[in-house]
Amino acid sequence: MVLPVARAAEHVTLKNGFEVDCVRREVVGDKVRLYLTGAGNYMDVAADALARVETVADAPVAAVAVAEPAMIPVSDSAKLMTFAKLTTLEMHTMLAHAGTAHNIDEDLLASLVKAESGGQVHAVSRTGARGLMQLMPGTANELGVKDAFRADENIAGGSEYLDQLLTRYHDNVALALAAYNAGPRAVDRYHGIPPYHETQAYVARVIREFNRRKLAARTAAQVADAHSVVAHAAQAR
Fold first, then answer.
1. Residue 93 belongs to what domain range?
2. Is 209 a catalytic site residue?
3. DSSP string for residues in the chain
4. Residues 71 and 17 occupy one common structural domain
5. pLDDT of the chain, 237 residues: tens digit per residue
């Protein structure tokens, strides 16, 4: 399967130090809507919150060949869940399936997993959140997750929960992430990202990792495209 690699058009820095890449901006009332790189999602910020907007050097959009995720047999899947940390391929496969099922960018899910657990299947927070996507027992139960330490169940449950939050906040990634961290009540109470340092840092960390992944993919695609051009030129001689 070949997917286009999106490019960032602008690098936006907010007055609070938050940085994000976006493909375009749009004024919506008294806010500015930043459409995030490669996700088809956005985040809204106050118009006076922008400190600096830098244009990213224009680069051709290249196509990247992405291998279709292989299905993991049930017997093998059960064995995988006992590992303290999954391999890159195992993680990719599970996140790809979850992303497809919920129409969420796999890189966004991977960025959330990194922020939540660092990829540790058996991670437990001081508040009792468990597994890769750090599901609280009550939330896991509501999502039908029987064992939060099973990677496939945890990713499926966490992705479903994020999907619910994205729907609730109309695909505003920043608000959905804030709600994932602090709870929907906090986001609704403050009508935006709560003024909690932990939550603000969390949202920034996830989006920064998401941007990093997109930049890495874009760079790899451009290098591959350049090598292809050189190869074709050599063959034409």
1. 67-168
2. no
3. -EEEPP--SEEEEETTS-EEEEEEEEEETTEEEEEETTTS-EEEEEGGGEEEEEEPPP----EEE-PPPPPPPHHHHHHHTT-SB--HHHHHHHHHHHHHHHT--HHHHHHHHHHHHTTBTT-B-TT--BTTTTB-HHHHHHTT-S-TTSHHHHHHHHHHHHHHHHHHTTTBHHHHHHHHHH-HHHHHHHTSS-S-HHHHHHHHHHHHHHHHHHHHHHHHHHHHHHHHHHHHHHHH-
4. no
5. 333 444 557 888 877 666 777 888 888 888 888 887 554 567 777 888 888 888 876 444 333 333 333 333 333 333 333 445 688 999 999 999 999 999 999 999 999 999 999 998 988 888 899 999 999 999 999 999 999 999 999 999 999 999 999 999 999 999 999 999 999 999 999 999 999 999 999 999 999 999 999 999 888 878 877 767 666 666 766
The CATH number linked to 17 is 2.30.30.100
Do both 84 and 161 map to the same domain? yes
Are residues 89 and 164 both part of a single domain? yes
Answer yes or no: do 56 and 86 share one domain: no
Q: Which of 90, 106, 116, 153 is catalytic?
A: 116
Check whether residue 100 and residue 162 sit in a common domain: yes
